[in-house]
Write a structure and sequence with these properties.
It is a single chain. The protein is built from eight helices and nine strands. By secondary structure, it is of the alpha/beta class. Strands 2-1-6-5-7 form a five-stranded parallel sheet, with helices on both faces. Strands 3-4 form a two-stranded antiparallel sheet. Strands 8-9 form a two-stranded antiparallel ribbon.
């Protein structure tokens, strides 16, 4: 999967993408992320990319540098690909939608990370295919939302998770009718007088599966 991220702050991704599952996915070349610093596409002497909003308080990312950045990606890879804008008030993500995006984004896309009072709406009209929200609240910038979206997508790439069965039995998965997961336990069998349910120690896979379904949270 190839992801092109347009952002004012590419360094804000460094810590998260250099650790754990995403780091391994990048190292194994299952996930490739290209960063484009929006300021590099500004014609302003000070490389500013924002301007005062019309009819409201605050600053808005200007359309000119953002358009240049998007067109640069298109020209670099010799084709147009889906463009995603992370915003607070659009299509709310859930696990089913993540799986749908994983299928239809065709393994390569652009993510625009907004900032200030977000982006000029003409960019949405002209370029954006999907406006995505990670939930009904406002973040300071789109970088964190983009990280959440990428993490949730990357888990679906084959062999990014060591145990591929983890995708089948987890919260909001199809097998559990999009419900939350059952309680989980590990060693020791007894901890502070609380015991692991006996059925999980039985080795009876049919009974264990019935217990899981019965105990979905």
């Amino acid at each position: 999967m190839k992801i092109h991220i347009i952002t004012i702050f590419p360094e804000s991704f460094q810590s998260y993408f250099s650790s754990s599952i995403l780091s391994r996915a990048i190292k194994d070349e299952k996930l490739k992320i290209n960063f484009y610093k929006l300021n590099d596409f500004s014609s302003d002497n000070f490389k500013r990319v924002d301007s005062k909003a019309y009819g409201m308080h605050g600053q808005v990312i200007s359309p000119e540098p953002l358009s240049k950045a998007i067109e640069f990606v298109f020209s670099k890879i010799w084709k147009k690909i889906p463009v995603i804008y992370m915003a607070a008030s659009w299509d709310l993500l859930n696990q089913e939608k993540i799986e749908d995006y994983y299928e239809k984004l065709n393994w390569e896309f652009i993510i625009i990370c907004g900032h200030y009072e977000w982006i000029d709406n003409r960019i949405i009209d002209l370029y954006v295919d999907h406006c995505i929200s990670i939930w009904e609240y406002v973040l300071t910038s789109g970088e964190l939302a983009a990280s959440v979206f990428i993490d949730s997508l990357a888990r679906n790439i084959p062999w990014v998770l060591w145990n591929s069965l983890s995708l089948e039995e987890e919260s909001f998965s199809k097998i559990f009718d999009r419900q939350k997961e059952y309680p989980v336990y590990t060693r020791p069998e007894v901890f502070m007088w609380k015991k692991v349910p006996e059925i999980l120690l039985s080795g009876n896979h049919k009974k264990i599966q019935e217990w899981k379904i019965k105990n979905l949270i």
